[in-house]
Amino acid sequence: MVMSDGLQSVTYLGYEFAFVPMAPNKASDLQVGIASKKIKKIKTRIALSLFDYCKNKDYSLLKSRLRFIASNYRIGQDSGSGNLYAGIHYNHSMIDSSRLADLNSIDSFVRHAIFSKKGSLGKRLSTLLDINQKRELCRFSLLHGHQQKIVRTFEASEFYKIKSIWNHV
Description:
This protein is α+β, with helices and mostly antiparallel strands.
């Protein structure tokens, strides 16, 4: 596959492997990032969370959903090596520093969606969220959650409530 910037890339298991040409007669450099399909899935979950908030006005649930997306959580125990984790770092642990911009773009998407006053979502959110709530929501950063390996605890009932609107995504 050829990307928009002319690089050759392969998508596999949620990762995008991009081959960056170096000087002539040199091997290509390999960059590993999040596949565009995965980025779209994360953004869709964020948008669904925001639209659901417009309907139910449950700020605590919205906060939990964004916290969930931007962090990591324990999913069980392995008899040999201990705890098993999932989340933004553990599901995307192979991305390299040259592709952290993938996470930054999702953080920018969240900020834009929350602070926008345009479009159906922006118009609704601008009347429902005050400035302090908007700032609080923007503190949940996928980039920070990935780099710092932030692990949060979610009760089973909260876990299912958070994920309930993402069943088809």
